[in-house]
């Protein structure tokens, strides 16, 4: 019976491997919960929770600086609104497909439930690549994108934010266009600038939250981050602020990467070097290789898409924080983490670890935190931005940071308690999947068949 549900879901979404992977991962942990709860089964909750409430796909035409007319595809997947308005980021990257956005939207539903805030799940974006585009081109693209998206979102309906390729610049252009179309100044996007409705600590929140979560994991094992060598992948928003928080707590980041390759700095990336990365990535929009040109203690390794492992995960360290993209850490990489004595693997990115790699990590005693728990600080702070926008108040950095710390501690404890209660002691993935699922499933039961 249950396997039939999974087959139906997959048949309805042929050619969507990332989405199938996310479905399988959650189902693995909630299958017994569904069996034990006749209402979930009778009301076919799993099939309903897996099907987006609405998927919008649209043409995004835009003119480049040479006067050529280009076409990209825009998407918004409105996955589930049982516990609040749809909420989730927009991704602009050439690898964006419907499958990628459905997996992200599905994960987002459970992540948002874990934060304890009233937010449903959604995700959107485009296969547009902002890399190498001028500011004027990015502005024309985002304005065209918003002309269509504006018909489907609203501050009580669907509140997008940033993700890969969508940072402060893109949120600014998107917000400006929405405001012009609707003639209203409301908190329809989060991640806004602080002078025009944004929350303090939102840019830092995902990376900071990830490290708060990891510190909770270490503390639960009578350990701390002090002196720990850390492998970090990515060099964007999440990676940058994860490194900042690692440094603030006495850890040593050793690596950073982008899609062209990674740098390994044997002396560690200190505060000054991190400032170089932030300037390189956020202002100059350069490539990570330039770090190795600047600092002789670092080496650059170009990425090899055909390799069966990623050497960034084969560096001797204590903690690993994948903060770039999905499926960037496979079974061979997990074996290398085990070989090198890595103790903790916490995901900043969404679904960066493949299912077989997760299994290897857990079986070998690596403490593993799934992104839907450990990177939830970003969306949680987006939720705090929404609350501030509704109420028309602004909290200080300390107030927001204190709330973020508390939320990450609550999520950590919820994962541990839920896992233990359902026979998965110490398994953060099971705890996160089950706790998130129950919260949304109960709301769906209460709200009827929709
Ligand atoms: P950014 O665009 O700021 O940075 C992304 C980084 O990952 C860049 O260094 C980028 O390199 C690299 N990257 C992206 N795609 C690939 C790829 N296919 N192969 C190799 N490297 C890649 O994004 P964020 O830091 O915001 O997001 C990183 C991850 O964190 C994503 O999985 C996102 O979904 C997740 N996340 C983000 C949140 C947020 O608040 N921003 C919240 C929760 C999760 P390059 O520039 O060369 O493409």
Helix content, binned percent: 40-55%
Distance between the termini: 22 Å
Strand arrangement in the largest pleated sheet: 1-2-4-3-5
Q: Determine the CATH topology of the domain at 205-374.
A: Rossmann fold
Number of strands: 13
Gyration radius (Cα, Å) is: 21 Å
Q: How much of the residues is beta strand, in percent?
A: 15-25%
Number of helices: 17
- List the helices and strands in order: HHHHEEEHEHEHHEHEEEHHEEHEHEHHHH
The 3D shape can be described as globular
Q: Average the pLDDT over all residues and give the rounded result.
A: 97
What's the quaternary structure here? Answer: single chain
Which hetero compounds are present in the coordinates?
Answer: NADPH dihydro-nicotinamide-adenine-dinucleotide phosphate
Task: List low-pLDDT spans.
Answer: none
Instruction: Please report the first level of CATH classification, the CATH class of the domain at 205-374.
Output: Alpha Beta
The CATH superfamily title of the domain at 205-374: NAD(P)-binding Rossmann-like Domain
Structural class: alpha/beta
* Overall CATH architecture of the domain at 205-374: 3-Layer(aba) Sandwich
Largest sheet features: 5 strands, mixed
Describe this structure in words.
The protein has 450 residues and is an alpha/beta fold. Among the domains are: 52-185, Leucine Dehydrogenase, chain A, domain 1 (Rossmann fold); 205-374, NAD(P)-binding Rossmann-like Domain (Rossmann fold). The chain is 49% helix and 15% strand. The strands form three sheets. The protein has a five-stranded mixed β-sheet with strand order 1-2-4-3-5, sandwiched between helices. Helix 6 (135-149) crosses helix 7, helix 8 (202-220) crosses helix 9 and helix 16 (397-421) crosses helix 17 (428-447). It is globular, with a radius of gyration of 21 Å. It starts with a helix and ends with a helix. 51% of the residues are buried. The mean pLDDT is 97. NADPH dihydro-nicotinamide-adenine-dinucleotide phosphate is lined by residues 93, 95, 162-165, 167, 206, 234-239, 258-260, 323-325, 348-350, 375, 378.
């Amino acid at each position: 019976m249950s396997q039939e549900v999974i087959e139906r879901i997959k048949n309805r979404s042929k050619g969507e491997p990332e989405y199938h992977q996310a479905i399988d991962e959650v189902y693995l942990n909630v299958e017994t919960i569904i069996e034990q709860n006749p209402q979930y089964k009778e009301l076919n909750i799993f099939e309903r929770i897996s099907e987006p409430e609405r998927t919008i796909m649209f043409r995004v035409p835009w003119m480049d600086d040479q006067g050529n007319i280009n076409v990209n595809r825009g998407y918004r997947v409105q996955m589930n609104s049982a516990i609040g308005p749809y909420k989730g980021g927009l991704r602009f990257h050439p690898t964006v497909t419907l499958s990628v956005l459905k997996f992200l939207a599905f994960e987002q539903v459970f992540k948002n439930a874990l934060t304890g805030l009233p937010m449903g799940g959604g995700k959107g974006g485009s296969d547009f690549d902002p890399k190498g585009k001028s500011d004027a081109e990015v502005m024309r693209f985002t304005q065209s994108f918003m002309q269509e998206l504006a018909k489907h979102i609203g501050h009580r309906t669907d509140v997008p934010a940033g993700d890969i390729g969508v940072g402060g610049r893109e949120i600014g252009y998107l917000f400006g266009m929405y405001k012009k179309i609707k003639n209203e100044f409301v908190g329809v996007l989060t991640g806004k600038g602080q002078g025009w409705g944004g929350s303090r600590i939102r840019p830092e929140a995902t990376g900071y939250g990830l490290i708060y979560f990891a510190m909770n994991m270490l503390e639960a094992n009578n350990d701390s981050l002090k002196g720990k060598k850390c492998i970090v992948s990515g060099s964007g928003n999440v990676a940058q602020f994860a490194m900042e928080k690692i440094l603030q707590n006495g850890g040593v980041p050793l690596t950073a990467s982008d899609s062209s390759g990674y740098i390994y700095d044997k002396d560690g990336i200190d505060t000054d070097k991190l400032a170089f990365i932030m300037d390189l990535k956020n202002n100059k929009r350069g490539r990570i290789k330039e770090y190795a040109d600047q600092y002789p203690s670092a080496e650059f390794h170009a990425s090899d898409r055909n390799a069966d492992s990623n050497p960034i995960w084969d560096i001797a360290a204590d903690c690993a924080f994948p903060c770039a993209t999905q499926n960037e850490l496979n079974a061979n990489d997990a074996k290398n983490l085990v070989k090198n004595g890595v103790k903790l693997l916490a995901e900043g990115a969404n679904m960066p670890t493949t299912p077989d790699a997760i299994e290897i990590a857990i079986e070998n005693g690596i403490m593993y935190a799934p992104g839907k728990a450990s990177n939830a600080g970003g969306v949680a702070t987006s939720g705090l931005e929404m609350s501030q926008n509704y109420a028309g108040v602004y909290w200080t950095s300390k107030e927001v940071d204190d709330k973020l710390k508390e939320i990450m501690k609550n999520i950590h404890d919820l994962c541990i308690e839920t896992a233990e209660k359902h026979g998965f002691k110490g398994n953060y993935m099971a705890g996160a999947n089950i706790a998130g699922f129950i919260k949304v499933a109960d709301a769906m039961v209460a709200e009827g068949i929709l």
